[in-house]
């Protein structure tokens, strides 16, 4: 196998965002916009090559007036890495995705799929 090939590594997952919203719809929309802005910044920086937000649902309703909503968002994210082989790329890419989400302050991430790797 060639040395230094480019591989695209993708993961799907969920994250929780807690915020105040006037209604279920407003809270879901605001949480989606907040995550989209973060992922757009990462794409503009060249850190992330692709992303999608697939769904947003109310995870926890407010328990009292003026309490926040907690929204769960489903997303996918892709990075491109250089590696000698697919197995190494998968490991490097998964670590890169972890690091980029952590540095962007995306909290409560749970992955719903194993890393998927393909040649870029």
Notes on the protein architecture:
The structure is a single chain. This protein is of the alpha+beta class and 120 residues long. The chain has a single domain, classed as GMP Synthetase, Chain A, domain 3 (2-Layer Sandwich). It is 32% helix and 39% strand. It contains two helices and five strands; from the N terminus they run E-H-E-E-H-E-E. Strands 1, 2, 3, 4 and 5 form a five-stranded antiparallel β-sheet that branches. A hairpin with an 8-residue loop joins strand 2 and strand 3. The longest helix is centred in the first third of the chain and has 21 residues. It is elongated, with a radius of gyration of 16 Å. The two termini are 15 Å apart. 22% of the residues are buried. The mean pLDDT is 95.
Summarize the structure.
The chain has 120 residues and is an alpha+beta fold.
The number of helical segments is 2
Structural class: alpha+beta
Indicate the CATH topology.
GMP Synthetase, Chain A, domain 3
What is the general shape? elongated
> What's the story with the biggest beta sheet?
5 strands, antiparallel
| Poorly predicted segments | none
Count the beta strands.
5
Alpha-carbon Rg, integer: 16 Å
User: Could you give the distance between the termini?
Assistant: 15 Å
Please indicate the count of domains.
1
Secondary structure elements and their pairing?
Elements: E1 5-19, H1 24-44, E2 50-60, E3 69-83, H2 86-103, E4 110-111, E5 116-119
Antiparallel strand pairs: 1-3, 1-4, 1-5, 2-3
């Amino acid at each position: 196998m060639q040395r230094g090939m480019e591989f695209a590594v993708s993961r799907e997952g969920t994250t929780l965002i807690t915020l105040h919203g006037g209604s279920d719809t407003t809270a879901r929309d605001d949480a989606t916009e907040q995550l989209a802005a973060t992922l757009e910044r990462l794409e503009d920086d060249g850190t992330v090559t692709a992303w999608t937000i697939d769904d947003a649902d109310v995870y926890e309703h407010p328990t009292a007036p003026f309490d926040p909503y907690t929204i769960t968002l489903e997303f996918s994210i892709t990075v491109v890495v250089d590696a000698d082989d697919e197995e190494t790329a998968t490991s490097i890419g998964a670590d890169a995705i972890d690091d980029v989400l952590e540095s962007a302050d995306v909290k409560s991430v749970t992955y719903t799929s194993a890393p998927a790797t393909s040649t870029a």
